[in-house]
Structure formats: structure tokens, C-alpha cells
Amino acid sequence: MTDENKSDSTATDGGLSAEAQRVVDQIEEGDIEFLQLQFTDILGTVKNVSIPASRAEKAFKDGVYFDGSSIEGFVRIQESDMRLKPDPSTFAALPWRNGQSARMICDVINTSTGEPFEGDPRAVLKDTLERASEMGFTVNTSSEPEFFLFEEDEEGRATTKTNDAGGYFDLAPKDLASDIRRDIIKGLEEMDFNIEASHHEVAEGQYEINFEYEDALTTADNIATFRTVVRAIAAQHDLHATFMPKPISRINGSGMHTHISLFDENGNNAFHDESDEFNLSETAHSFLAGVLEHAPAITAIANPTVNSYKRLVPGYEAPVYVAWSDRNRSALVRKPAARVPAASRIELRSPDPSCNPYLALSAIITAGLNGIESGLEAPDPIRENIYEFDEETRMEYGINTLPGNLGEAIDELESDEVIEGALGGHVYDKFVEAKTQEYDEFRVDVSDWELDRYLETY
């Protein structure tokens, strides 16, 4: 992938592009004092380098250098110099900084080659989208990240005490966080998010804010920003926002249902076919089949923590069975109702908000594109409630189960060349290394549950 595309910020004559100049003008007109240049490490943690806003023009022209050896999964100490290239299209003032600070999301450039760094998750997604483009498609996505709001203790540390007793779609007074969600939404809208809906989720203290369909790169950028905004504004209310998949035992965890569709070169939804029983085209059926085929390996990327698998258990509305449906939500993939052809899409319900959005979308899209290239055929939809099936019935239907823990998911990833290819060699190796270590540390740790259960019994 060449160092161009969405993030071009310098003109061919060495000056600024029109979009970069617009940002420089906005900085001057808005009295912006500092710029946060953001990117993510391989695990999806947002990192940033802060510079005086007066250096924006230089940042566009020359980039900003940093030590890549200090970032999870980037480079070794002897090859540490990296360069941040700001994407002017992502400029937005930070609402919790009184308009004095702004952020831009950056691409990471390998200083030795001048090319995008292969370990940059954003570059990984760009490569995937370029592959889709070569097949004649653009990719549109949206995600529904859920989160919990918890009270803090006297020392400002997070507890697991929820700040309300509300349930699904409840209103005040049970939903005590409506004012906080209002502030979050207001902040997001100030950053040019198009908010579609907001509501209380099933569990106490759990919420969901949905933003509209965008191209896949913008969606990934939005998810990374969304998590930062939610945490920052919650902290202003002396609350802790967490995207941990399962912070409390025996209640619903937080998911990040992800909607996807492809559009052809004429701007038509390549997933829609009016003559099909489900209004899904042959392309959509093959894409869906690819997602189901590679779902076990995708799980390692879309559900990347030990805690993710405390959510992926039957009985708590999280999908664990590899099947699809146009009716019920017990299947892994759902075909939502579409009011117009442009809205035809599929919804993958397994991802959770702890994932790196760039890598998760890359894995999902690659799986679907592989399904199209391989001419895979989707199985029949399952319209019954799979949660009510016994094991024998699931076997009769040919329904497999997602990995039960992070170790099993890593094993699936290591045996799936398609999803490995989606990540690229550098990211794949570093991701597997980090997650294998995480799971090994978990396996040898003794939990409070074990001590309570066994210490005095045996």
C-alpha cells in the first residue's frame, strides 16, 4: 500500500493540501492551543503525541517522529523511529477540553522506507479495503458498542457498583445516566458524529449509543474515538466508563454488534436482491458464508481478552453458535430488516468493545471477501431459538460453537491462513505472541473464586 489515500495532507508542490489548509485555518480561528495526534497499538489502546497547535503545518508537511519501540507490538529497540502522518479529515476539537485542544488520527509511517508501517492497525484495515476496491466494492459498516458506568471510590478508583437500577430501554428515574449520555452525545456530535440512537441496555448500569453507517475506515476511527470520549465525559461526572466485556458475573456483558454491507462501483448495495427470500444477493450469501466459515478465527481478534469469553456463554444474549438467521438473535449472524434496498446488510453479533476495531473489521471483511472469491454458499437460516437446542439437535443442524476461551480462539487463528493474511505477518506474529502470553498468565493465576471454593474444603 502506498503512502497516499485518505490521509494525504501535502500537495504535490510541497505545500499543504486544501483539506490540511482548512484544518490550519480552523485551528487559528478556533483558538486551538494543542493537538493530540492519535493512533492505536496492536491491542487497540489509543496512544497520542501532543504538540502545540502552532506546529500543525509542520506536522502536515514533515510528520511527527516518535519512539515505536515503546508501543505494544510495534518494533524492536534497534528499529524504533516511526513517523506520525496526521489525517486532516479526522480533525475535531475535544469537547471536554473547552475547545482548546483537538485531535487528529494518524497513519504510522516507517521512516526507513517512507511507506506505511506494516504494524499499524489502521494500515492493516486500509490494505483490506484496497482489496475490496480491487474486487469492485466499497465497504460500509456501523457498530453498536455497549459500556458500563460504575461509581468510583473515595480515592477515585473504579468500583463495580452501578449508578442506576435501570433495565432495557428504561427511562428516568431508573435510568440515572440519561444526563451523562446526553453530555456524551453532545460531545460526540460536536466531533461530527452522526448519532442514530441511545438507550439503556439490559443490565444495570449498562448503555448503548449507536452512530450511523459510514465507510469502514471512518467506523473504526469512530469506535476508537468513541471509547475515549465516553471515558473522558464519564470522569467529569465522577464515574468510570468501562468497555470490559463482562465486568459483573451472572449478568449480560457488553457486545459490539457490527453491521456490514458492500456497495458496487455504481453506488448500489451489492447485498440487496429483491427476488431473494431474504432480500440478500448471491454476493451477500457468499460474504455471509465466508464470515461463518472463518468465525472461530475471527473470534480471537473480535473477542481478544480472557474476559471476553465470560460474555460468550449461553443464556446471556451473547451469540455462541455459528449460524445465521433472519428472525432471532440467538444466531451468530443476523439479517436485520431493511426498509430500503440501501439498508440491506448483515449483522455479526459476537464482537465486543475491547477489540481493536481496525483489526476486527479487517478480519471480518477479509473473511467475507474470501467467501465471495471462493463462491461459498451460506447454509439455510436457523429460525428457531438455538439456545433451546440440545447438543444432539445442534449436531443435526450442523451448528458449531465458537471457541470457549482465549486459548482455543488463538488455536483457531493459528490454523486459519485467511485471517492470518488479513492481519499481515507483523501484526499476526505480535498479536499471537501477546495473546498467548495473556492466556498463559491467566491459566497459572489462582482466582478468588477458587480460593472461596477449595481452600477450606480440601
UniProtKB/TrEMBL annotation:
InterPro entries: Gln_synt_N (IPR008147), Gln_synt_N_sf (IPR036651), Gln_synth/guanido_kin_cat_dom (IPR014746), Gln_synth_cat_dom (IPR008146), Gln_synth_gly_rich_site (IPR027303), Gln_synth_I (IPR004809), Gln_synth_N_conserv_site (IPR027302). PROSITE patterns: GLNA_1 (PS00180), GLNA_ATP (PS00181), GS_BETA_GRASP (PS51986), GS_CATALYTIC (PS51987). The keyword Cytoplasm applies. SUPFAM superfamilies: Glutamine synthetase, N-terminal domain, Glutamine synthetase/guanido kinase. Residues 30-114 form the GS beta-grasp domain. Belongs to the glutamine synthetase family. L-glutamate binds at N252, G253, R311, E317, R329, R349. This is Glutamine synthetase. ATP binds at E196, F211, E212, Y213, H259, I260, S261, R329. It is found in: Cytoplasm. One of its GO terms (cellular component) is cytoplasm. The keyword Nucleotide-binding applies. It comes from Haloquadratum walsbyi J07HQW2. Residues 121-458 form the GS catalytic domain. SMART domains: Gln-synt_C. Its EC number is 6.3.1.2. Pfam families: Gln-synt_C (PF00120), Gln-synt_N (PF03951). The lineage of its organism: Archaea, Methanobacteriati, Methanobacteriota, Stenosarchaea group, Halobacteria. PANTHER family: GAMMA-GLUTAMYLPUTRESCINE SYNTHETASE (PTHR43785), TYPE-1 GLUTAMINE SYNTHETASE 2 (PTHR43785:SF12). The modification O-AMP-tyrosine is found at Y387. It is an enzyme of class 6 (ligase). One of its GO terms (molecular function) is glutamine synthetase activity. Binds 2 Mg(2+) ions per subunit.
